[in-house]
Model the fold of this input.
Amino acid sequence: DTIVMDIDLTSAIRIEELVVGSCNAPNDWVLAPIRVEMQHSRNGKRYSEWIELQTDDATAVKRLRYTLPNRIKKKASKVRLRIIANAVLPESHPYHGQGAWLMLDEIEIK
Done:
């Protein structure tokens, strides 16, 4: 499953980092996102291409931190996120193939 959200910032800022608060509790059928993508815009009309973000620490359980590469650190007042989740539990899970949950609690844009 995929979540797409538009975030309106109070003013244009140079975006350097994105933090996604999520839960990863496989025993409860809750899995962290498998991929996070971002677009940004200064005016909300023209957005950049989708940028796949790489986490700095893939082992983080609650807070996935993404540092943006220098080439895309731009000023923006609007951010669009696409958060891709595991639709089903992986083969390593006793109930593999069953639906998985995605839980998000905060998004920080720095």
